[in-house]
Amino acid sequence: MKKIAVLILLFSVQAKAQLGKSMFTKDPIINLENFDKQRVYWGYYLGFSSFDFKTDFKLNNAPNIDVKGHTGFNVGLVGVLRLHEYFELRFEPGLYYASRTLTYAQFNNERDGVREVKATYIDFPLLLKYSALRTGNVRPYLVGGLSSTLNLSSNSKSEDDNAQQKFRVKPWTQNYTFGFGIDLYFEYFKFSPSIRGVFGLKDELIRDNDPNSPWTGNIESMKTRAVLINFTFH
Looking at the 3D structure of the chain, how many domains does it have? Predict the structure, then answer.
């Protein structure tokens, strides 16, 4: 993580230096002037994420569940279809590594009270991007859409449940995504950092075999929430 942070910092310094030369002058140099006129183009992204659960309970006075998200890693591809000068349709399939720690307040021991929920997601988002008017080599944008996500670590086929320390969720989930970012145009490529929120649409939890389970019995719904920071290169 420290090495990645250093690389991002070095890249940011270099980006600032290059953009300063091409933007903040009387006659800025316009990089990749015709890049956005392409009908179809491709790219890839790397990034970080933090996944959480939004939990609703049947009884509000029951013991709480504390959900702590940990920093994960994202990588994926980008396919772009230009619809209009300001609108693009984007398909961004990606691989996400995520981890959450669930702590149940009613237990005093770690074996029963803590669940480490790790996930490997394959995400299939279809997004619509709206870009503002380009100014020099900078163009801010908004992006949003829907996605279907496959969790390869869902434990959905396991007959064991939390009584055997096995936390289970459904393999497929549907989400909506909304975020913002900025396109930065360099001499040879376009760099697009963005921040996005992911919001699950349906309950993902598979209940324990015992309907009165202390781990799942009082949960009305459990839905994914996530924050993504992506660095896209075209």
Answer: 1
pLDDT band at 6 (very low <50, low <70, confident <90, very high): very low
User: Residue 77 is part of a domain; what is its CATH number?
Assistant: 2.40.160.20
Q: What Rg, from alpha-carbon coordinates, does the chain have?
A: 21
Nearest to 53 by CA among 68, 63, 71: 68
Domain that holds residue 101: 2-233
Q: Would the CA dihedral through 105, 227, 46, 76 be positive or negative?
A: positive
Distance from C-alpha of 216 to C-alpha of 5, rounded to nearest angstrom = 38
Strands of 83-189 (E only): list them.
Answer: 87-91, 94-104, 114-131, 138-151, 172-185
Helix (H) or strand (E) holding 70: strand 65-82
At 89-108, the pLDDT tens digits run 999 999 999 999 999 988 88
C-alpha to C-alpha distance for 143 and 151, rounded to whole angstroms = 24
Contacts of 132 (CB under 8 A, 6+ apart): 86, 139, 140, 141
What 8-state DSSP symbol labels residue 218? T
- Per-residue pLDDT tens digits for 161-189: 999 999 999 999 999 999 999 999 999 99
Six-digit token pair at 197? 């929120």
